[in-house]
Design a protein that fits this description.
Helix content: 40-55%
Shape: elongated
Structural class: alpha+beta
Strand order of the largest sheet: 1-2
Largest sheet: 2 strands, antiparallel
């Protein structure tokens, strides 16, 4: 009788474990599939231009399809008119665009109310800075962003500016802000 109870308890625990494993797999795959789908669109939007209206391609692939949470995720991005290469072989600007594409795709799954982006434009040329500006400003209704930058392309698209400058006589920093919404067309 004790043996049968132990067998029943072991079977019950095994069923519960299988249910948890199934839910974990389903939850992971729901998230992964959403991000993988959103990444394709997001990366295309970030890389589109008049010369390349289709934009580039980006893909996520699982290293372990059966138990995806036990393996890694491989990310590949192909800028417009470039052949397939490992991410390590992309330029700094291409890597930045790829990283932003993934960041915004992840954001689309569980949106945060705002982003703080510190010099995301450092490795970008003016053409790509403008693309990122257009992408971010085109989504003003879905999130707010604070962008730390030294490039005027972002300034032109901002709702407000905040500057910090050293005040030599007092030996401290001063903060200056300007609401630009009254000057927008």
């Amino acid at each position: 009788d004790e043996f049968e109870e132990a067998k029943e308890q072991a079977r019950s625990v095994s069923e519960e474990f299988d249910e948890v494993r199934r839910r974990r797999h389903d939850t992971f795959m729901e998230c992964f599939n959403h991000i993988a789908d959103a990444l394709g669109t997001t990366y295309k939007d970030l890389t589109k231009s008049s010369k390349h209206p289709m934009g580039g391609n980006a893909y996520l692939m699982l290293e372990n399809v059966d138990e995806p949470y036990l393996g890694g995720v491989k990310y590949n991005a192909m800028p417009p008119m470039k052949r397939f290469r490992d991410m390590e072989q992309l330029s700094g600007g291409e890597k930045t665009i790829a990283a932003l594409g993934l960041l915004f795709a992840i954001h689309s799954y569980k949106p945060a109310p705002f982003f703080v982006m510190d010099e995301i434009d450092a490795a970008l040329d003016n053409v790509n800075v403008k693309k990122v500006c257009n992408f971010v400003t085109g989504r003003r209704g879905s999130f707010q962003s604070i962008v730390v930058t030294h490039k005027d392309q972002f300034y032109r698209h901002a709702d407000s500016l905040v500057g910090i400058a050293r005040d030599a006589p007092s030996g401290s920093s001063q903060t200056y802000s300007m609401d630009l919404t009254e000057y927008q067309e």
